[in-house]
Amino acid sequence: ELSVSLLAVIVIVCGLALVAVFLFLFWKLCWVPWRNKAISSNLAVLQSEAGCNKENMADKLKDTGAISFLEAAVKISHTSPDIPAEVQMSMKDHIMRRTRIQRQTTEPASSTRHISFKRHLPRQMHVSSMDYGMDPPAVAEQPTSIGRIKPELYKQKSVDSEDPKKEAAKTCGKINFTLKYDYENETLTVRILRAFDLPAKDFCGSSDPYVKIYLLPDRKRKFQTRVHRKTLNPTFDESFHFPVPHEELVSRKLHLSVFDFDRFSRHDMIGEVILENLFEASDLSRETSIWKDIQYATTESVDLGEIMFSLCYLPTAGRLTLTVIKCRNLKAMDITGYSDPYVKVSLLCDGRRLKKKKTTIKKNTLNPTYNEAIIFDIPPENMDQVSLLISVMDYDRVGHNEIIGVCRVGVNAEGLGRDHWNEMLAYPRKPIAHWHPLVEV
Question: How many domains does the chain have?
Answer without folding.
Answer: 2
